[in-house]
Amino acid sequence: MNAPVRRRRVGVLGGSFNPPHLGHLVIASEAFYQLGLERVVFVPAADPPHKTVADATPAAVRVEMTRLAIAGDERFCVSTIELDRGLKYTVDTLRALAGEYPGAELVFIMGSDSLLQFEAWHEPQAILELCRLAVAVRAGDDERRLDAVAAGLGRRRALVLRTPLIAVSSTDLRSRVRMDMPLTYLVPRAVEEYVRRHDLYVVR
After folding, report:
1. Cα dihedral sign for 197, 54, 183, 134?
2. CB-based contact 131:158 (threshold 8 Å)
C-alpha cells in the first residue's frame, strides 16, 4: 500500500520589514525546519491595517531591504503581491497566494503578540480556513497562555513554535540609527549598508 502524499507546505511571513533583521530570519528559518516547509515567502506590507509604517519608509525601499536580507538563501523568497494588487488584509493576501501556490498548505508565521490579538483581525475565521498559524514566542509572553489561545482556535489550526528568543525589533534598530549606533550583527550586512547609503531613519 502506497503511503499518502503529503501536501507541500509554504510559509508566509508578512511584516513592514522596516528594516528586516535577524529576528525575522531566525523565525523564518526555524519555521522552515520545524514544519517541513518547501519555502518561506516574505511579504512586505503595503498598508498595514493595524499600524502605520514608521518614518513613512517607501514600500519599494522595504522590499529592496527584504531582498537584500534573504539574498543567497534558497529557502526564502520575496513576494510583492500586496503592493502589486493593493491588498491590505491578511485574508486577502492569503487568498491571492493560494492562487499562486495551488494545492499547497499555507502556513502563516506570526509573532505571539499577533496571536493574542488575532480575534480582532479582519475575518479571522476565513484566515484559519486558508492556512495554519505558526506562532513565534516573543520575550516576556506566557507560553502556557499562548498554548491555550492556540488550542482555542481549533485542532491543529495554530502551533506555537519553540524558537530562539532574538530580542531585536525594527523600532529599536531605527532608534539606533538615529543615535549613530551600529546595526552590525543585528541585520544582515547588506541591509546595514543599504540603510547607511540611503540615510534611512536619520532625522533631517
Report:
1. negative
2. no
In CATH terms, the fold of domain 9-167 is Rossmann fold (3.40.50)
**What is residue 107's DSSP assignment?**
E
Distance CA 25, CA 163 (A): 11
On the question of a cis peptide bond just before residue 49, with omega within 30 degrees of 0, the verdict is: no
Q: Measure the CA–CA gap between 40 and 32, rounded to whole angstroms.
A: 7
Q: Look up residue 141 and give its amino acid.
A: D
202 contact partners, CB below 8 Å, separation of at least 6: 177, 178
Give how far the C-alpha of residue 52 lies from the chain's centroid of Cα atoms, to the nearest Å. 16
In this prediction the pTM is 0.92
Contact 195, 75 (CB under 8 A): no
Which of 131, 97, 105, 95 has its CA nearest to residue 8?
105
In eight-state DSSP terms, residue 87 is: -
Chain segment 166-192, per-residue pLDDT in tens:
889 999 999 999 999 999 999 999 999
Domain spans of the chain, in order of start? 9-167
